[in-house]
Every structure is written in structure tokens, then in C-alpha cells.
Task: structure prediction
Amino acid sequence: SPETADGPKLDFEISIENFNIVDGSALVNERKVHIDFSLRNISALLNYRGSRQVLESHLSFDGVFDRHAPGKPSIPYSLSADMDYTRATLMAHRITIRAGRTEVKLQGRINDLNKNIAGKLEYTGNVHTPFLNYFFTKERFEGNADIAGQLEFSKGYFFTRGKTASEAVDF
Result:
């Protein structure tokens, strides 16, 4: 890659057709949670700026979140993001998550990814309420709602505040 005012510019492009974690686990609130995680059509464009120690990235993929619980259906989704990573901090300029007709956009910062993770993200979107059927499997929802707000989190802490507006939600 050519030299820039930032010093040498390093460009990377990554493309992966399928990526799977099978019989995996994650720690959530110090409890082990079993997950299967599948990604398809992974595409990443990465630029590293050495003088500023910043990794700029554009990432997109289609995924399926498989949950290990009876009656809990898998959730297909897609993610597209423009982010910078520097010194254990992730600056999310734009993260768009889609599941069916639901779309949520996030923007903000996640600090100290190495030890004491903490973050604050603002969100906007439109939730097609049948998305709730993934979590409330005995109920049936219809309608959609606009959402906006913010969420904050750190180890042992999660807080969200926001607004939602809808002409009608049926259940």
C-alpha cells in the first residue's frame, strides 16, 4: 500500500463464505451459556493507520443465532458495521443489525475490551413486532414500532433508556 501522511498504509480485505461455532459456550453474568453461532457471507475491509494505532474496519455478514433451549427458535440476522479499534477501545461509527423487517442502528463507544469492558451506545430503529415471537413463543404479536434511546453497560451492570412509538401493536 502507498505511503500516506499517517505513515505506511496497510489495507486488508477478508472474505469468508461460512464460519461456524458448534457446541460453543459463552460466559454471561458468570454463568456458562451454550451457543451455536453461524455466519455466512463475511466481508471485511480493514485499514491500519500505524502512526495513530487505529484499525479502521467495515464488516458485514449474515448470521444465525442458535439458542439451546426447547421451544427457542434460531434467529437469522445480518450485521453491517463501520468501526475503529484503538488501544482496547472500539468506536462504533455505525452498526446496523437486521432481523426480518426489524432494523436497529447503533453508534457509540466500547472501552477497555481487554479487562473492564464498559460502553455506551445510542440506538434508533424500527422493530417489526413479530420479532418478539422469538422470545415470547406462546404469544403472537403484530405491528411495528419506532425506537430510539441509549444503552450503557459494564461488568455486572446494564442500563437502557429510550422511547418507542407505534400506531398499534396487537397481541
Notes: The chain has no helices and eleven strands. The mean pLDDT is 83. The CA atoms of residues 15 and 43 lie 5 Å apart. The longest strand covers residues 7-28.
